Amino acid sequence: MPVYATPEEAELAFYEAFETADLTEMGRVWANSDDITCIHPMGNCLRGREEVMSGWREVFSGGTRLAFELTQVQQNINHNIAIHILYENISLIGSNRPATSMIATNIYQLINGSWQIILHHSSLMPDENSLDFEDPFEDDDEDDGDFVEDAGLPAAPKRIVH
């Protein structure tokens, strides 16, 4: 089992395994615990080693190859826990489509001398330019119904992919 001396090394291994769709390497960076959690965009909360790895198996089985450009937003470390919040700008390899932006939270724990991921949660980011920021509670004569009809988000993926 590899040893990740820093949370950054574990994060690099996580995204390398993701880009290469390498389930074995992905399994090495995750803690071997029933207390781990993974939430893919638009997906269910996967808890425990078996569910989390089954989720990655499903993601990788689609054959889609992704490239990540990461921007660190916030990084906190406290003795044996590190919390990283970052933007994932994700491109589909071989496609001309623009990158999709996600916001992710990755939590790492120092376990037996190695940093291991214990939580990954990634969510779609709204396109701020296409959101209607008018007051939804403003009194007018129109039937507002759902006050945000089109938030400008890309269509939900049919498969769980980042």
Q: Could you explain how this protein is built, in words?
A:
The chain is an alpha+beta fold. The chain has one domain (7-126): Nuclear Transport Factor 2, Chain: A (Roll), CATH 3.10.450.50. It is built from three helices and six strands, in the order H-H-E-E-H-E-E-E-E. The chain has helices at residues 7-20, 23-29, 48-61, and strands at 37-39, 45-47, 66-78, 81-92, 100-111, 114-124. The chain has a six-stranded mixed beta sheet, with helices on one face. A hairpin with a 2-residue loop joins strand 3 and strand 4 (81-92). Helix 1 runs antiparallel to helix 2. The longest helix is centred in the N-terminal third of the chain and has 14 residues, at 7-20. Mean pLDDT is 82; it is low at 129-162. InterPro entries: NTF2-like_dom_sf, SnoaL-like. This is SnoaL-like domain-containing protein. It comes from Beggiatoa alba B18LD. Residues 130-149 have a biased composition (Acidic residues). Residues 13-126 form the SnoaL-like domain.
